[in-house]
Amino acid sequence: MRLIFLGILILVTNAFTESPFGIPGGEEVKKVDEVFGVLLEEKYDLEVLMSFGTSSKGSAGHLALSIREGDDETVYSANFYADRTPEHADHYTEKLVPAIAKKEYIYAQTPTLSPKAVFGLDYGEVFKRSLIGIRMTGISATKKKGIKAFYKRLNEDYSNRVESPEYHRGEVVYNYMNLNCAKTVAQALKYGAGFDDVKVRGNHLLASIPGSKYLFSHVPTSTAMNIMDVLSKEGVSFSVVLYKKFAGSEQLDTEHNLKFKDLPNRFPSFKSLDFFNGSKEFESYENLKAMYLLFHLGKFALILDGPSRELRIERQAQPKTYKEALKLASRQGYKKSKNLIRRVFRSMGVKITAENDTGDLYNPKQDQHLKLFPRKPGEI
C-alpha cells in the first residue's frame, strides 16, 4: 500500500515540477543538432525562410535569409521594431537586420541576441507558426560575402539615419510597406550578391504618390517566387524543408489575445482576394502555383514532438528539379484556381456552375502545411 501511495506521489510531484516547454525560458528542444546534421548533408548555400501568417486576414507572413558557411547557418531577419516609433522603444532596436543563429531563430526558447528579443519572432519561430525553407545550391562564396557586406552596410545606414541611399528611397528604417522583411531579402540578393534581375520595388518617384505604398510593397511569397525564378536561370538548384509549427505553445500573443497554439497558421499569401478573405481556402492562381511548386521541391518535413520534446524528421522525399516542379505547379494551379469573375459572383452567394466550385481543395479543418506534404494512404 505504501508503495502504491509513493508511486502516486511521485507522479503528482513530477506533474507539478515538469519543466515548461514552448514558452520563453522553457526547456530546449532535444536532438536539434542530430536532425540539422542530416539536413546539412546536402551542400546548399542559402536558405530563404518563409514564415506562415498568423492573422485571419492579410496574412503575408515573414521572410528572412539564412547564409550557410560550413556547418554554421546565420539568419538575417528584418527587425519589425526598428521603426523608431515611441511604442517600440522598449524592444530590441539596435539593428535593422540582426544576425541570428538559425537553430536559435527557429527552435530556441532562450535568446542570445538580446533580452529584449521577441519570442516567436526573433527566436523560437516554430512555436508560433510553420516555416518553409527554400534551400539554394550553387551560390558562390563571393556572392555570400557580398550579402553579408550589404547587411552590414544596411545596419550602419540605419544607425546613421541615412536618407535615400542607392538601394532605397527614403530613410533607412523599418516600414511595413516601404522597407520590410521581404524587401531586405530582395535587396541583399540584388545589391549584395549581384543578382541584378531580382525585383526591388518602390525605388522610384511613383512610390511617393499618396496611397501607392500598397502597390509597390514587397510580400514574402511573391518575393520568394521572383528570387527562385531569377536564380534558377543562373544555374541555382532548390530543395524545400517544412519546419512545422509546434501545436502546444501556451505563450500568449498580445496582439491577437490568443495563445500561440490557437493562432491561425496560414500559408503566406500573394496580393490577391485570398489575402483578404480570411479563409484557409486558396483560390488564386499565383497562390496555388506557389504551393504546388514548393510541394514538388519538398525534401524534408520536420516536426517537434511534444511529449518527448524532440525534433524529428517526419517525412523525406526526392525533390523534382525546378523546371519539372514549375511545369507541374503551373498546370495544377491553373486547374484548381478560380478566376476573378467567378469569385465576385460567389461572394454574392451565386455559383456559376457546380463544376467550377473547388472550395474543398484546401480543407479548413486541416493545417495548411498538410497540403504541402500530404499524408500517404494509411498514414495517421
Summarize the structure.
The chain has 380 residues and is an alpha+beta fold. 31% of the residues lie in helices and 14% in strands.
Name the features.
alpha+beta, eight-stranded mixed sheet, 380 residues, 11 helices
What is the number of helical segments per DSSP (H or I, 4+ residues)? Answer: 11
Integer tally of domains: 1
Question: Please, what is the average pLDDT?
Answer: 82
What is the string of SSEs from the N terminus onward?
HHEEEEHEHHHHEEEHHEEHH
Main beta sheet: 8 strands, mixed
Q: What's the helical proportion of residues? A: 25-40%
In whole angstroms, how far apart are the ends? 40 Å
Strand-residue fraction?
5-15%
Outline the structure in words:
The chain is of the alpha+beta class. It has one domain. It has helices at 2-17, 32-39, 102-107, 141-159, 181-192, 213-216, 220-232, 273-276, 285-296, 322-336, 340-347; strands at residues 46-51, 62-69, 72-76, 99-101, 131-137, 237-243, 252-253, 258-259, 298-305, 310-316. An eight-stranded mixed beta sheet has the order 4-3-2-1-5-6-9-10, sandwiched between helices. Helix 4 (141-159) packs across helix 5, helix 5 runs parallel beside helix 7 and helix 9 (285-296) packs antiparallel against helix 10.
